[in-house]
Amino acid sequence: MAGNSDVSTEKCGPTESLGVMKLNDHKAGMQGLDTAKINQIIEEASKGSQFYQHKQKNQERINAKIANLKASCAKLTEEQKKLGRFKMDNLAGKLELMRDLSRTIVHVDMDAFYAAVEIRDCPELKTKPMAVGSSAMLTTSNYHARRFGVRAAMPGFIAKKLCPELVIVPTNFPKYTEVSRQVQKVFADYDPEFSAASLDEAYLDITDFLVARKDAGAEMTAAEAVEEMRAKILESTQLTASAGIAPNGMLAKVCSDKNKPNGQFVLENTREAVMEFIKDLPIRKISGIGNVTEQLLGALGVSTCRDLWDKRELLYLLFSESSYDYFLRVALGIGSFGGDGSERERKSVSCETTFRSTSDHEELCDIIRQLSADLARDLERLGLTGRSVTLKYKTDKFDVKTRITQLMSHTRDGAVIAKAAQSLLPVGLHLRLLGVRMSQLTSPAETGNNNAGRKQRTLDELLLAVECPARKKRKLDAQVSNSLTEADLTRGAPLLFTCPVCHSWRTSDGEVALNSHVDECLNQQVLYPEQQSTTSAGCSSSQSKLDRYVIRRAK
Ligand code: DCP
Ligand code: MG
């Protein structure tokens, strides 16, 4: 634990004593709250619960990591630091050459989405603090309730302690999905190849749209186009959206939160504007930097993007290559996804859902079928097929595990995916979350399995990872057939297995070795931004995975 460490805190930043249930107030509408008071209420209300115990266990693990990090940091010599800085400066030079300021990227995000839909359909809720979910878990809250510290990924029973008059409305996923389709229709007018990050948000590249307008003699600025888009969304759904406009997806996402709700923010496409914008930005504002990374970096005295730059030698010396590369991109405002062909590739598409804990095998199989159908739809939309199916599950003790299998050929058939995922389902465990992931992706063009009539895109042009939003268990998709056998799924599997989480680890020792690595990867490798939300208890999919959704296309 951090408190047991004898490491000097002067060298590597202050040690902050963190409560187990610390409120995450990095959310629009939650600024300036009395967090000390809120944290105390949360701590008292949750003590003794399984959720609390899980958080406590997690925090102990994080504390141990912090202690290790600080111990390693204290041992670094001046010479090593000099070398670290030199290496990072070199890398920064390379990244600068890749900086792309030519695109206009928009991140659009609906305001208090599920809550806004419920309020629209029940106007008496308008003046009340309300949230959507259950006493076990909330999916979101309206801005009124946020003033009390009530937010997504908080158990409803704790929220009630913070705000006794809180109205909790049950989730209605079919309704949100329908609204999402209406919103996405508007997106398509501005970028037919928009990347949906979840039901309520998307990344759009409106560069071509703006050029086309200009060519047609109807020039408009990016801000005007986005104003118009938001007005169209309001017209078709009676709901408000916020947007950020920037040279890349990472920055656009930060920008969309700036004037929430019902606002937008433009970041000019110049290096100066980007560097000015980024310098005092708290790292936690960056999608992909979650609670764990924030704590680890905090232990090194890094809390803003400028700190990331100032302490770059420590990042180089103490973190993995993918992590320090990512941190440097953040520090430079380049992001992982500049559309410049330099991004780290993300190679999986997945869906997951949280539900009331159950061990009923049939019920769990139903959920997998539905998730697989959703996943198949996303693969279809992205023009991708995949070959590795991973089942992720969270037990009622909040332990996250994964199992992986390989298909005999690339597919995006929901039935095949479901059958494969079901074969990985453990028997007799009480589960509260299931996820299905497809990796080893390829476009049909590469497999000769082209989809006639569909515009073909190369992998480089595609968004390379999509997570569905948290989805509730729904009725079995009538389309799903059960005609496939286990043998169909595994015959002809290649000998080399690639980890679907980190993509860099490979083994020829078979699935057992791979499964154990992936578990390790998800549970231990907390530094890698993509894995934040998969390890954090109580958080459903959308929270910290959003930065995975990016527009990548040829220019
Ligand atoms: N969601 C969820 N579980 C979470 C977070 C979100 O089920 N842990 C769902 C409910 C949200 C929707 O996804 O309404 C969109 O998530 P956002 O993070 O965009 O949050 P909101 O749209 O609710 O609020 P904001 O106005 O901050 O965007
Ligand atoms: Mg939203």
Topology:
Blueprint: H1 9-12, H2 35-46, H3 50-75, H4 78-98, E1 105-110, H5 113-121, E2 130-133, E3 138-141, H6 143-146, H7 156-162, E4 167-169, H8 173-190, E5 195-198, E6 201-205, H9 207-215, H10 222-237, E7 241-246, H11 249-258, E8 264-266, H12 271-279, H13 291-299, H14 305-310, H15 312-318, H16 321-332, E9 348-358, H17 361-382, E10 386-395, E11 400-411, H18 414-422, E12 431-439, H19 444-447, E13 465-467, H20 486-490, E14 497-498, E15 506-507, H21 511-524, H22 532-535, H23 542-545
Parallel strand pairs: 2-4, 7-8, 9-13
Antiparallel strand pairs: 1-6, 1-7, 2-3, 5-6, 9-12, 10-11, 10-12, 14-15
The site of magnesium ion (MG) has 5 residues, from strand 1.
Q: Quick gist of this model?
A:
The protein is α+β, with helices and mostly antiparallel strands. The protein contains 23 helices and 15 strands. Residues 27-28, 109-114, 139-140, 152-153, 198, 200-201, 260-261, 469-470, 539-540, 542-543 line the site of 2'-deoxycytidine-5'-triphosphate.
Summarize the structure in words.
A five-stranded mixed beta sheet has the order 5-6-1-7-8. A five-stranded mixed beta sheet has the order 11-10-12-9-13. 49% of the residues are buried. α3 (50-75) runs parallel beside α13. It is globular. The model is unreliable at 1-11, 13-18, 337-346, 448-495 and 524-555 (pLDDT under 50). Helices cover 43% and strands 15% of the residues. It contains 23 helices and 15 strands. 2'-deoxycytidine-5'-triphosphate (DCP) binds at residues 27-28, 109-114, 139-140, 152-153, 198, 200-201, 260-261, 469-470, 539-540, 542-543. Magnesium ion (MG) binds at residues 109-110, 113, 200-201.
